[in-house]
Amino acid sequence: MKKKIHRDILVRFDSLPDVIEHGTINPVNACVNMHDVVKIIAPTQVTAFARYDPVEIIKYPHPTLRYQSKPLKRIDAALRETITEMFQLMYEAQGIGLAANQVDLPYRLFVLNIHEERSKEHEMVFINPVISKPKDPDEKEEGCLSLPGVYAPVRRPASIHLTALNLSGETIEGDFGGLLARAIQHETDHLDGILFIDRLADLVQKQLQDELDQFQKTHDANRSQNVIPPDEIIFDRLAAMESAYCV
Ligand SMILES: [Zn+2]
């Protein structure tokens, strides 16, 4: 994906110590993305929290996928743009749903489009979702953009009641069934750090073990090459973003 760069300045992470020494940014407010790039709003000082562009969908077992997000307390233009990019990434990966922590963000929101057509009228944004009144257990195959190629049957309620906010801050409330109910539950699970593989029967989980081990190997290799930063950098960044946007 070609990354949009607005007025932000990009600095290689390995040059960060020099930048800090010259007093140009406050590292607490800096934002490190998956490509070890620090984004700064202004070249001489950080005046606000730098916007984070989601650049890719993170894969199992990235630690952010286990992050339990707190409710969002504000929606601004930067967040709207982030959400537009989430839809873009979801479409590129041919998915129907994407949760914020799948793009390494700590916000309690997810996006959905369960239709074939990529049109605005089918795009749904759910902020601070709360599921209640689960009914009628059902089993259907699921997959996940953070576990590409892995599919397995997952038992979930066939219908649910949902309360959430949309991007305009208006309340969405209603009973949902079918694919929409399943997608809402799958994505809300993500916001609690739960993956669909956690909900599989033991036997099914065992059958997937080789595939999961392969994801682990790729993750370990990315860690050793610093493509994925150490946990403390990831969690410091998530905490800083959370303090700017969440309750
Ligand atoms: Zn998923």
Strand arrangement in the largest pleated sheet: 4-5-6-7-8
Biggest β-sheet description: 5 strands, antiparallel
How much helix is in the residues? 25-40%
Number of domains: 2
What is the CATH domain class of the largest domain? Alpha Beta
**What is the annotated CATH architecture of the largest domain?**
Alpha-Beta Complex
**Ranges with pLDDT <50 over ≥5 residues?**
1-50
Strand content: 15-25%
H/E element sequence? EHEEHEEEEEHHHH
Structural class: alpha+beta
Spatial shape = globular
CATH superfamily of the largest domain: Peptide deformylase
The N- and C-terminal alpha carbons lie at a distance of 32 Å
Contiguous helical run count: 6
Q: Which ligands, by name, code or SMILES, are bound? A: zinc ion
**Total strand count, please?**
8
CATH fold group of the largest domain? Peptide Deformylase
- What would the average pLDDT be, to the nearest integer? 83
Question: What Rg, in angstroms, do the CA atoms define?
Answer: 19 Å
Structural features, described:
- This protein is α+β, with helices and mostly antiparallel strands.
- It has two domains: 7-50, no CATH class; 53-221 and 234-245, Peptide deformylase (Peptide Deformylase, Alpha-Beta Complex), CATH 3.90.45.
- The chain is built from six helices and eight strands.
- The protein has helices at 16-21, 77-92, 178-191, 202-207, 209-224, 231-245; strands spanning 9-12, 31-32, 37-40, 97-99, 109-112, 124-143, 151-165, 171-177.
- It has a five-stranded antiparallel β-sheet. Strands 1-3-2 form a three-stranded antiparallel β-sheet.
- A hairpin with a 4-residue loop joins strand 2 (31-32) and strand 3 (37-40).
- The longest helix is centred in the middle third of the chain and has 16 residues, at 77-92.
- The chain binds zinc ion.
- The site of zinc ion has 5 residues, from helix 3.
